[in-house]
Design brief:
- The structure is a single chain.
- This protein has a single domain (about 10-245), classed as Rossmann fold (3-Layer(aba) Sandwich), CATH 3.40.50.150.
- An eight-stranded mixed β-sheet has the order 3-2-1-4-5-8-6-7.
- Helix 6 (about 145-155) crosses helix 8 (about 200-210).
- The protein has helices at about 10-20, 30-55, 80-85, 95-110, 120-125, 145-155, 170-185, 200-210, and strands at about 65-70, 90-95, 115, 130-135, 155-165, 215-225, 230-235, 240-245.
- With about 250 residues, it is an alpha/beta fold.
Length: about 250
């Protein structure tokens, strides 16, 4: 009898983002919200990584001894800043088109990044290990959250860190992140997010703990229309980030 192997890949989601691949590096294009969001998440990552590893953040390449995975890397919007900070970077995405776009842009930028069209499960099965696993705006697009988070957690070295950024499953998020951002403001194409696939912080934290990780911090990220920027916040009702470590 045929058996169906579990996978975290949602083929429809991969196809959706692959169709938009050419837009990744256009700051005014379909990924404009990520370009706006990037400075906030980069500052948070740098602050927490340097604090955790006792690194002087003012050194020219503070991440030079760190191996970092950006899972669901898309076109490489986080991989390139990590490489500029000196890290050895692996960027993985299930969409081959996204990876090709990322490779071309990295070459144009003079950066060496190990881009791979693969899955979290395949990397974990191969025994890959990283000091930092970046899991940003991906978990709300996977088919099996438990399987996906388990694979990602497996790749965090003892003493390493993982950052997870996603959208809460609340009515406020439905109104702002889906209806407001996709249907009113047109920041994102309609259908980018499905409400039922959003993940609540307690669900995410439970998955992390179940995978042997210890949750260090949870913060909200809020958009300010006055400054047209994203900032850290205590409000986790819409966008939030969770930091965890493997003891």
């Amino acid at each position: 009898m045929a058996t169906t192997e579990r996978t975290s890949i949602d083929a429809a989601e991969v196809e959706r983002f692959s169709r938009m691949a050419a837009e990744w590096w256009n700051p005014q294009g379909k990924f404009r919200p990520l370009h706006k969001f990037n400075p906030t998440r980069l500052a948070y990552i740098k602050e927490k990584v340097c604090g955790h590893y006792g690194i002087d953040p003012h050194t020219p390449m503070p991440f030079s001894r760190l191996r970092i995975l950006d899972i669901g890397c898309g076109g490489g919007l986080l991989c390139e800043p990590m490489a500029r900070l000196g890290a050895t970077v692996v960027g993985a995405d299930a969409g081959e088109t996204n990876i090709e776009v990322a490779k071309i842009h990295a070459a144009q930028s003079g950066l060496v990044i190990d881009y791979r069209a693969t899955t979290a499960e395949a990397l974990a099965e191969a025994g890959e290990q990283f000091d930092i696993v970046l899991n940003m705006e991906v978990v709300e697009h996977v088919a099996d959250v438990e399987l996906y988070m388990s694979a990602c957690a497996q790749m965090v070295k003892p003493g390493g860190l993982t950052f997870v950024a996603t959208i809460n499953r609340t009515l406020k998020a439905l109104g702002l992140a889906i209806f407001g951002a996709e249907y009113v403001l047109r920041w994102l194409p309609r259908g980018t997010h499905q409400y039922e696939k959003l993940v609540r912080p307690e669900e995410l934290e439970a998955a992390l703990r179940q995978s042997g990780l210890e949750v260090v911090e949870k913060i909200g990220v809020s958009y300010s229309p006055l400054s047209d920027s994203w900032n850290r916040s205590r409000d986790t009702d819409v966008n939030y980030m969770v930091l965890a470590t493997r003891p």
